[in-house]
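Weekly puzzle thread! Below is a chain. First person to post its structure in token form gets bragging rights.
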Amino acid sequence: MKKLTYGGYVCQICNMEYPAQEWALKCESKPVTKDKGVQVGDIVLITKGVGVGEPAKVIKRLIFSCRWQVGDWEQYWHTAGVHVILRSSSELVTFSRALTFDNYEIVDTRT
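Winning reply:
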């Protein structure tokens, strides 16, 4: 847990800010789950949401905080995910999105 200069506290796992030290410590006590071992540069297949069926390149690994999904926040709190970049079918437009563990499958890993 990291103390901020203005008096808040940050969970060192998900970078969520809290006004009280106890809350940050409670957040840090939650383990990281659902890690598929995907690394930057790997290719994944999007299985849900925008870009479904498209391959995408991992540009960043993520750990989701309790604020990630309204209603299902407990399921996603400190789960591993990825930020990916995709190309549209026109190949002229690229876009990116975050994917939770249940929104992608591994296609190819860097070697």
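Puzzle host: Confirmed. Bonus trivia for everyone else. Helices lie at 21-28, 73-76.
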